[in-house]
Amino acid sequence: MAGAAVFHVLNKIAASLAGKALDTISSELVKEVSALLAIKNSMKQIESEFAVMQAYISQVNAHDSPNKPLVAWLEQVKNVAFEVEDIIDEYTYLVGEENVSGFRNSLKKKCRHLKNIAAWHGIADQLKQVETRLVKLTTMRDRYGISVRETASDFAALRQRRAFDIPYLSHEDEIVGNDEETKKLIEWLTDGKEARAVISISGMGGLGKTTLANNIFKNPTVKRHFNWSVWISVSQSYRVEDLLRRILTHNTGKNEEILNGIDTMDRIELAEKVQIYLREKRYLIVLDDVWSRAAWSLLDCAFVRNNFGSRVIITTRTEDVALLADENRRLRLSTLPKEEAWDLFCKKAFSRLAEKRCPQHLKDWAEKIVDKCRGLPLAVVAIGSLLSYREQQEQEWKSFYDQLSWQLTNNPELNWVASILNLSFNDLPGYLKNCFLYCSLFPEDYLIRRKWLIRLWTAEGFIEERGPETTMEEVADGYVKELVHRSMLQVVERNDFGRAKMLQIHDLVREITLTRSREEKFGIVCNGPGPTMLREQARRVSVHKGGLTSQPNANLRQLRSFILFDEELPSSSIENASSSFKLLRVLCLRHAKMEQIPDAVFNLFNLHYLDLRCTKVKSIPKSLGKLQNLQTLDLSMTRVEKLPREVVTLTKLRHLFVVCFYDYNCRTFDSFSAVSVPHDICRLEGLQTLLNIEADKFLMQNIGSLTSLRNLFVMKVRGAYCTELWASLKMMPGLVALGVVASDKDELLCLDGVHPLPSLQKLYLKGRLDEDEAPTVFANFGRLRDLRLAWSGLQTDPLHSFSHMSSLVDLHLYRVYEGQRLSFRAGWFPRLKNLFLADMAQVSVIDIEDGAMKSLYQLQLIGLSSLTATPAGVVYLQSLQAMYLIDMPQEFIRRLETSDRSKVQHIPNVYWRSALYRTLTEVWTV
Q1: pLDDT range class, residue 921, cuts 50, 70, 90
Q2: DSSP assigned state of 838
Q3: What is the pLDDT of residue 871?
Q4: Which residues contact 55 (CB under 8 A, 6 or more apart)?
């Protein structure tokens, strides 16, 4: 982790040096404080030193290294990195105080200058001391002969031996699950097809990929089918030349023609030799534990396509490697279902009992332990085997469960499990390690929203700059995908566009990562019972339920993130804690019991992220303007109705959420509120998200200057504003989601003059539409995937107006149509997954032709008071999985239970009481 700390500090130094903060400080101060130039020079020198140091230490993972002097030395490097981070943030804080708008008065400004002179000198002195410490660290390394080369080599060999041992950890007769996977693999291997095929088995560490591959490799049917086979353990550290030599020396005996000269051949010559050797063979090659695609092009060439029915199996934790396999030859393993995990655990834990069943008095604790394993076979087998030697007493098992996190990392009989799971973390590049450690701060089993995680990472400074054409959020989105592809994060739910929406970290991986996070002083979780842990020198704190049981007395200036998950924490505790923050970057107080923001919050000049979602906060004071580094301000579900003018001074603001719901079902026109913002909000050119603002003519004329906007929601729009609004939207080439709500249900939203919006994917229009304009305007939205119309007042069937939208996935129509018949024709909406039809009181007939909406997954019919029978065409919707009926006529429900039952018998889930609604900010941000 020293490498990750150094990587993070290098990013911060680069950002500080790239900025022009010092140049904006008055020349009078520069003359008065000569230390400013020394600060810049020192930071450049430290940046150079750390860059070389990072390259040096990146050659080995010290966490599992047996080289104790190296571990101790790296710990010192990490401490210096933390110290430099503190100095840089202090520097940023002081620069901010010099430039903050609240001190433009010359007398006040001079007083502030004088007050900060000592602080500037202190920073210069601290940086000089750091320079000296770095020189001493280099001297120390040379004095004690500390080297990473030997350690890296030894550790790679140890990892490879561990990986090779895994297949033999389970007896064949004790394997549970994977029956279908085994059958499929044997079929792929022996299907008689002559072309060489590449098969992949992928998934997170500990799922049993190697065990499954090994059982297939040893299967008698498979053995008889191939006349030559070899198992090659690749692991993280390998040389392609060694892999090729191992193939040539396998089962060749003393064949001098094959072995002659292979020790001196380069990789190209070896590949050609392997090609010749395999040319006449029906071979099976297993490449186990492959981490990178780097060598594949050469291996692919060496594994000759001889049309003898040869096969290559690759096991891997990374999706990029899995994609090397032929299409329809990729097997992704998942965790065991609870019943199978329980069966496997009992076979291991109670192997000494005749029936291998769990005694009744241990069942509660045994089930909790199995639940903790979350279906991970490696953990189930290891923990079950360990417990088979423990006394079968309830207190013994309770104690083990309570100490499970400690056991995994400290018990010699289990810490190899942690080592196996840690391999994936150790393989992460520096820019991903801090991001993944941050995920461990969320509560157990927590569903992490991708967009939220991205904003937190960005606020913490974990995201690299990758050129002016790419936003930080886009880079961070790439980080999420990479962690998913490396099987570090699991996608629990995808949005309707196929992108990850909800993510989760496996419980055991989280426990191990959290232990590491605490050891590295990256972050801690306060989750009680027991005394508060805020005295620790961790740089991030996550407070879970009952976690902050006493008032923190410690100085918390080292904190960079404070995230609250305890909804019962009293506001006094929050106020006390916040008074100790100084260099905080992330303050998340979602669901906190508070009506006022503590004054201390507005002294946090380094704050990048302020989240007050779902609190009872009513007003935002003018002192908001002091938060000059703020990137995200989330006031969703608060009672804020107006923002102070000072918000326009927050020039780094990227995401602004302000919305309050009155009707979560959104069936009333005034179901959510708008916030009044100052006109100068249009000066914040970095804004990407702006929800939900109250429109006026000036704003609609000038909002086009926000050219970076991707998500915009405007309310109380009058028909007279529409021309200016559409003209402004033309200036936003990256706009992805747009919501427009009329000032009242009778106000006409004039669509004449709407320009094509090529990037738009989500559109919400709430208000009366002109019958003649509506059909033509939708031709301007070629990429639209989510369309929501409400209170449109149309007299003719609107469906034909957007039936050409072949990309549409979501279609919501609320009080849109005042006619009697809606028609879905064959071929319309081929990708539509979710259809919501609500509160159209006159609709009595819904025609659905065979071939319409072939991909429909969910159908909601809400308040269609004239619809008395299930539409006959529902029988054609064979992909439909759920049908929700809310406030439908009693006659409709009666017939559904009797004569119309056959129309819906193919639908797995039909409900007529509950509905699925999502909040506006979840739907309208991407």
Answers
A1: very low
A2: E
A3: 96
A4: none
Question: What is the bridge-based pairing of β-strands 909-911 and 858-862?
Answer: unpaired
The answer to whether residue 286 scores a pLDDT higher than 90 is: yes
734 CA to centre of own chain: 22
Strand partners, 658: 635
User: Which CATH superfamily groups domain 523-632?
Assistant: Ribonuclease Inhibitor (3.80.10.10)
Helix axes 363-373, 377-387, angle to 10 degrees: 150
Tokens matching residue 89:
């943030």
What is the topology classification, in CATH, of domain 654-784? 3.80.10
Topology (CATH) of 420-461+472-519: Arc Repressor Mutant, subunit A (1.10.10)
* Contacting residues for 653 by C-beta, under 8 A, at least 6 apart: 630, 631, 632, 633, 647, 684, 686, 687
For 27, other C-beta atoms within 10 Å of its C-beta total: 8
Is the pLDDT at 763 greater than 80, yes or no?
yes
Would you tell me how many other CB atoms lie within 10 Å of the CB of residue 859?
Answer: 23
Q: What is the DSSP string of 472-502?
A: HHHHHHHHHHHHHHTTSSEEEEE-TTS-EEE
pLDDT at position 177 is 66
| pLDDT of 576 above 90 | no
Is a pLDDT exceeding 60 seen at residue 867? yes
Mean pLDDT of 16-35: 52
Cβ neighbors of 507 (< 8 A, separation 6 or more) are 372, 373, 374, 444, 445
- For residue range 491-516, list pLDDT tens digits in order: 999 887 788 999 999 999 999 999 88
Q: How many CA atoms lie less than 13 Å away from 35 in the CB half-sphere?
A: 15
Given a contact cutoff of 8 angstroms between Cβ atoms, the answer to whether 506 and 374 are in contact is yes
> Mean per-residue pLDDT for 171-184?
72
**Sheet containing 228-233: which strands, arranged edge to edge?**
228-233, 283-290, 311-316, 197-202, 330-332
**Cα–Cα distance measured from residue 814 to residue 837, given in angstroms and rounded to the nearest whole number:** 6
**Lookup: tokens for 331:** 């097997």
Per-residue pLDDT of 740-755, as tens digits, reads 999 999 999 998 888 8
Residue whose structure tokens are 């991708």: 450
Using alpha carbons only, give the angle 504, 546, 577 rounded to the nearest 5 degrees.
100
Chain position carrying tokens 């086009």: 704
Rounded to an integer, the average pLDDT of 913-917 is: 46
Residue 747: both structure tokens together: 């106000």
Q: What is the pLDDT of residue 854?
A: 96
Tell me the mean pLDDT in the region 29-51.
Answer: 67
Among 152, 170, 169, 205, which residue's Cα sits nearest to residue 419? 205
Structure tokens at 182: 């085994």
Structure token digits, residue 486: 């490396």
Contact between residue 818 and residue 794 where contact means Cβ atoms under 8 Å apart: yes
Query: Structurally, what CATH architecture does the domain formed by 178-332 represent?
Result: 3-Layer(aba) Sandwich (3.40)
CA distance readout (Å), 658 to 346, 371, 618, 712, 732: 52, 39, 11, 12, 21
Which amino acid belongs to residue 745? Answer: K
**Structure pTM?**
0.85
Q: Is the pLDDT of residue 118 over 70?
A: yes
Cis peptide before 692 (omega within 30 of 0): yes
**Could you report the per-residue pLDDT of 803-846, keeping only the tens digit for each?**
888 899 999 999 999 999 999 999 999 999 999 999 999 999 99
How far is residue 18's CA from residue 599's CA, in Å, rounded to a whole number? 32
Q: 536: number of CA atoms within 13 Å, CB side?
A: 18
Q: Is 915 helix (H, G, I), strand (E, B) or coil?
A: coil
Distance CA 464, CA 611 (A): 23
pLDDT value at residue 534: 57
Q: What is the DSSP string of 67-84?
A: -HHHHHHHHHHHHHHHHH
What is residue 64's DSSP assignment? G
